[in-house]
Specification:
This protein is an alpha/beta fold. The chain has 9 helices and 8 strands. The chain has a single domain, classed as Metal-dependent hydrolases (TIM Barrel, Alpha-Beta Barrel). Strand 1, helix 1 and strand 2 form a beta-alpha-beta unit.
Length: about 270
């Protein structure tokens, strides 16, 4: 695959400890494959400083502020705490040089997850806070939705994310996908589509409008087929692009160009 093709990893937890030993070596290897930009989602407030510092240190890195549903149990999420987090985000952004504020591209990772031991009502409250924050800041959402697409669609119809967003690691039917697209969401295509057994998700990504697809790795998690049990990295993005190209009957170059354009349009970054 020609390294003249450029890729954008729309969802990569590159700040996680799994990369502490060799982060820049991994990034250089990904760059040789054409990956020249990535977004690092926030998962809890104590991580946000690290996200900002890493993004500002490396060209092509962007970040988002959020509280992932799987981390809600680790931090207070009462109304006063959420207000405090919002003030913390405003302070972060105000302290940045104006020319760097665009590096904060979204609110998230946030959302809903029925597989965790946390009341859905509490998750809905925290997700609603993220929607209101994104609308106030003029930013899209990065959404985690696991077995909760119906609840996600219902909430977003009541409290519309005005700047859209992405449902990352989307896995679901064409009908569900189109409902999300109608609400202004893009769909994150990741390692799942490289697995032959993921027939429903693969069929969905073969049919939905290409303008609504972005590529992602969710590294260090969700490795593609053949790399089960291994640390995932942005180096797998060309494999995901190839799988999407095969599903749609187009070239990898076309998939790369369109998904990069979609990602930059969604996140207003170049």
């Amino acid at each position: 695959m020609s390294n003249s093709i450029a890729f954008f990893d729309s969802h990569c937890h590159f700040d996680f400890p799994e990369f502490d030993a060799d982060r820049m070596e991994v990034w250089q290897a990904a760059q040789t494959l054409g990956v020249n930009a990535l977004v690092m989602p926030g998962v809890y407030p104590q991580q946000w400083n690290r996200l900002v510092d890493l993004s500002l240190a490396v060209p092509g890195f962007y970040w988002a502020f959020g509280v992932h549903p799987c981390w809600i149990h680790q931090v207070p999420v009462d109304a006063d705490s959420l207000c405090r987090y919002e003030t913390q985000i405003d302070t972060h952004l105000a302290a940045l040089p104006e020319q760097e504020r665009h590096r904060c591209v979204a609110v998230g990772e946030c959302g809903l997850d029925k597989t965790i031991d946390l009341p859905l009502s509490q998750q809905l409250d925290v997700f609603s806070w993220h929607i209101a924050l994104a609308n106030r800041l003029g930013k899209p959402l990065i959404v985690h939705s696991l077995k909760t697409h119906n609840e996600l669609i219902s909430l977003c119809k009541k409290h519309k994310p005005r700047y859209g967003g992405v449902v990352h690691a989307f896995s679901g039917s064409y009908e569900t996908a189109m409902q999300l697209i109608d609400l202004g969401f893009c769909l994150g295509a990741g390692g799942v589509i490289t697995y032959e057994r993921a027939q429903k998700t693969r069929a969905t990504f073969a049919r939905v409008p290409v303008e609504s697809i972005v590529l992602e790795t969710d590294a260090p998690d969700m490795p593609p087929s053949g790399r089960q049990g291994m640390r995932n990295t942005s180096q797998s993005l060309p494999l995901i692009a190839q799988a999407l190209a095969d599903l749609r009957g187009v070239s990898v170059a076309e998939v790369a160009a369109k998904t990069v354009a979609n990602t930059r349009r969604l996140f207003h970054c170049g």
